[in-house]
Design a protein that fits this description.
By secondary structure, this protein is of the alpha+beta class. It folds into 2 domains: 2-215, 3-Layer(aba) Sandwich (Rossmann fold), CATH 3.40.50; 247-305, OB fold (Dihydrolipoamide Acetyltransferase, E2P) (Beta Barrel). It has helices at residues 41-49, 97-104, 111-120, 136-148, 166-183, 280-283; strands at 2-12, 15-25, 30-34, 56-61, 64-68, 73-74, 82-85, 154-158, 186-191, 203-208, 211-215, 232-233, 238-239, 247-259, 262-269, 272-278, 291-297, 300-305. The strands form 4 sheets. Strands 7-8-9-3-10-11 form a 6-stranded mixed β-sheet, sandwiched between helices. A 5-stranded antiparallel β-sheet has the order 2-1-4-5-6, covered by helices on one side. Strands 16-15-14-17-18 form a 5-stranded antiparallel β-sheet. The protein starts with a strand and ends with a strand. One of its GO terms (molecular function) is ATP binding. Keywords: ATP-binding, Nucleotide-binding, Transport. Residues 1-234 form the ABC transporter domain.
Amino acid sequence: MIEIAIEKNLRISETVHKLSSALSILPGEKVILYGKSGSGKTSLLKMIAGLIRPDTGSIMVAGEPWFNHSAKINIPIQERNIGFVFQDLALFPHMTVMQHLIYASGKQKDYRYLEDLLNLTDLKSFILQKPGQLSGGQQQRLAIIRALARKPKILMLDEPFAALDSNLKSDLRRELSILQKKQNFTLFLASHDKEDMDGFAHKYIEIREGKAIPKAHGFDRYSAAPSVSNKVDLTIGRSSHITEERISYFGTVEKIQRMENGVLFFIELGDQSLKIPVDTTTAKQFKPGDPINISSQNGQILLLPVF
């Protein structure tokens, strides 16, 4: 468990703003931090990592105090078992791909593990290339696996896909999910990209007006929740507005009711409670309390797990 209860006065554009955060994160969760530019997303990541010292409060990870203002504890970043990918990647221009991984892995090098990282990101055939010889997507992959080389328990990404096209973003999200599931690290991702809200995370945290606000889903920053009379008639599982654009919403399965001819889902979606009939095969993927992605495209309603 990661327990964060900190405050920090941040100077942004000649003005001092207080950032307060009280969060509980489970091991292995994927967490999206989102909010306007300058809201404090990156600063919160850096405080957890040890790059910025909070003014007050504490940070506990797996029962170990990483920071405690009252007890005067502030564990150095090199002892926090964190991987950090900065927005500008911060790759070394004179090092090859393999040299990046060997340097980052520290004293206890696991070459089989490094080979797995290279295979998972299709970089094995580029181990002798330097960053300037790689594409933008390859550089991004290198930055991520370099951060994972020391087998961190927490990986932090600051706007990792900002400069990439949508297809490459999709590929990298998929690879990152595979790496996260395989290595079981906790992932923090700071973003203001709408696509990162599309079922990528377990938990969404909005940074707004100096507070870190946990959300059940990411849709509310970018779109309104659907209603029966609006875009999608979810009570009967059909689309009443056919469009080629995919529309996604995120909610929580409140209750699952077995019926003679199928299953009925009760879903909390923002301030609404929706009833959606589903088939038994789909129903087997969910239990009460699970997050759920409700997508509508071309007249079809899809219910998808949030991994």
